Sequence to fold (459 residues):
Amino acid sequence: MSTCSTGGCQTIYSKKRYFTYGILTIISLVLPFLQIDGKQLFLLSFDKKQLHLFFTAFDMQELYLMPFLLILMFLGIFFMTTLGGRVWCGWACPQTIFRVIYRDLIETKLLGIRKSIKNKQKPSQSSTKKAIAVAIWSTLSLLAASNFTWYFVPPADFFTYLQNPLEHMVLFGIILGIAAFLIYDVILLKEDFCIYVCPYARVQSVMFDNDTIQTIYNEDRGGEIYDDHHNMINTKPIGETDECTGCEACVKICPTHIDIRKGMQLECINCLECADACTKVMGKLGKESLITWTSPNAVKTKSKTKFLRLRTIAYGIALAIALVALFLMGATKEHMLLNINRTTQLYKIKNEGKDIQNVYTFLFQNTDSKDHKYYFEVMHDGISIKKPSQPFNLKSGTKMKKIVILKAEKNLSEHAEEDTLLKIDIKAFALDDKEKIVVHRDTTFIYPSPASVKSYLNK
Ligand code: SF4
Ligand code: SF4
Fold:
């Protein structure tokens, strides 16, 4: 969306922001319902002890992906902030979206208890309509809180639990708690959350450089309103060529109640409402907006913002490496899990020392979406499976403990006085899909020394 005058065509950001908010809201509502084989794009289920990522389920024991996700998240924040400043705050943060819905849509457009979205300095008028606004927002808060939990509890389970809320008090207690916070935050705390509570607001300025895109008032064109110590000199610049009219449309519209003509401030959430306000004022005079979304260097050199620079390229490369690593790690996902533990007994000596056995506990887990029949092989010459003698079934998502006895088919002793420790490879698989559902695990088979066998038989 742009507005054109004799000063040229200029961007109006608000329509673009509203469109972005709409798209993001739809995406966050719809994403949990998009499933492939029952797997979501993202789900961290504490209930099922599973992580769903890109429609693939990972068991809690496979959470080696979590560090990559965290690295990716932090690198993403660094990259985004260095490149686009507080672009997240103005264009995607739920706090900003919720405040626009409550203040500009419900209070102003729908109920008229605020006069205009152009003036956010005046509080809303107290009336019965305020109670209606609170009621509407409370309903939306419950929806937002439920939507949030769908990334931790699959929607199908959520709606089943909803039929018996008393049996799921913790879940619904969490939802009510989140909704209550959203009501307090959006109606009472307002933009003070961005200014005093949000940790991102505190740290983001250290990631800025002079090429970071921000909301900037062009003092060279507009004229000085504040001195170097941020004290107001005049409400309207006095220089003959100074273009700022002193109308303060940019100040009145600011949701965080700041004056961008003072320079970059921590409170600025990059919503660009002031830029739109100035675009309309200056447009009527046939001039370009004095407030634009640009970088300090671009204003100084009257050039375009430099997005490609050493910092952004470095973050971009690091981000790409972390993404590739995440995909590669994700691709190595095993479709079954197997944990092997030896029992405390070193070995069993049977049949006059001719039958040597080792006992293990195998924990099989079917992490696939289908039921399978499993069995395993010992990849070592001279060692065979005594128990279990038959393959066994395991339902999707379930675990099974098996006592496994391996026995030596021949004399495997390598030392006269010491027991022999043999490294063996266990290959476990689903019989109906040996190509895909297969894992290898190393363990040890202990074969007693002739001396140990002799002393055992003499007991
Ligand atoms: S100064 Fe105010 S209106 Fe302008 S971008 Fe920052 S927060 Fe928004
Ligand atoms: S809206 Fe533009 S012209 Fe009006 S006070 Fe702000 S910077 Fe000056």
Remarks:
- The CA atoms of residues 275 and 452 lie 87 Å apart.
- The mean pLDDT is 90.
